[in-house]
DNA sequence: GGCAAAGCTAGCAAATTTACTAGGGGGTGG
DNA sequence: CCACCCCCTAGTAAATTTGCTAGCTTTGCC
């Protein structure tokens, strides 16, 4: 029996680069009746204040050109209720803005989400499947299939495909993730200099500023200033809180 | 068309408690030819030194009685290569000890894993599917179907069911997770007292020992001692490293 | 009921951090 | 080519942390 997932994996192996693989994923979704696709990746889903962080990678297929701008620069990502559900759950889910009542989406929707809901209704992308992909390092991706102008019962029909779309999403992510460059993989929510990050990591490993100064062959004053500037950029009150936030933003590269 | 996943969800809704739901999941797996099931959950998959942490919940169905003891108290969990692959990946996968070559399992297997491999061969549980479930909080579960005495081509046949088993695993976890009690959800790798944790959390929020003393109406010496003891238990060199490790073990409850 | 262990209480000297100060060099844009 | 901004360099007084000290209370077990 021909396995569609093996065929998809073969397609992904043959594709060269992210854009080709996105096209392959789009074709795989089309076989299930989807017209559009969204894939995004973020090293850290939430800021320390609980706000969703704009992803470092957002890719669209067959979607209005202004969506990327609204989501990445217009603040729409932070008020996207589907993204909120995905960030807090690990289970793939069908969503519909036409009939959100009784669903996970319906439970999180609030007035602040209205601009996103309006936009998706205007562009007739009111129905889809989202696969949350939480990764072992705390990073996070979503893989979404959307149907433009869905028929009345398309949402119900989607449930038949949830298992397949979920696996396609995981296979796709597994294929593209190894090629992400360091800028995509690193949280840009707070921008620290290389010296600031280096000093934070050594501090998280238990070295005092004096020990770091000796290790890096620099004056203690220099190390203290790097740490102080990092504390300020992280909005922390002191060095300890800065380390807690740096850990949250996964800037420590596992150092502890 | 009858949706087996909706039927499974209904079954889980009707079940009372974790054990009943495990039975329901076992029955769902049996429909795909599996004979046995494993589900486990851990608030933190890895210790700060990279070693796998024994899960706070491990449930087995139709598996040798001594497996729980070997895995939870005998150190086998730490040398289980399937668990290592699952902890580092998010994609569900088929595994076979009969023919591990060329698979993710084969790439991680090393001599230190031999006791686990021997045990699974002795108990004829050499083939299965594992669904890693990484959660948004950093916690982690696995859902595994196993076939005892698999026929020669069972591994290949399993690929047909990977999508279905993956969704079943996610649905099952989603059904049981809300009822986990705090002891299961809290990392027990390092045991700190309530006062130690309280002082660590307040420290991570940027309060000095003096400020904490004022807030808790205690002497500074008292706060300092709680923090010092926590530092020792975490094996840290100082307060900053203790916070980095507490964050790693998710003892801070998001505090930063 | 008694004993031991664990947890919480608190003080102090030495070491470290915090929060300010200031200058030089490199890169980018006009 | 020059000016401005950013990053890296470094010093110091006041505040805080570290790492030890010791005693009291509570809890659990025999």
UniProtKB/TrEMBL annotation, chains A, B:
Keyword Cytoplasm included in the entry's annotation: no
One Pfam family in the UniProt entry: Autoind_bind
Keyword entries, A-Z: DNA-binding, Transcription, Transcription regulation
Domain of life of the source: Bacteria
InterPro entries: Sig_transdc_resp-reg_C-effctor (IPR016032), TF_LuxR_autoind-bd_dom (IPR005143), TF_LuxR_autoind-bd_dom_sf (IPR036693), Tscrpt_reg_LuxR_C (IPR000792), WH-like_DNA-bd_sf (IPR036388)
Record flagged with keyword DNA-binding: yes
TM region positions: none
Residues of the HTH luxR-type domain: 185-250
Name recorded for this polypeptide: LuxR family transcriptional regulator
Organism of this sequence: Dongia sedimenti
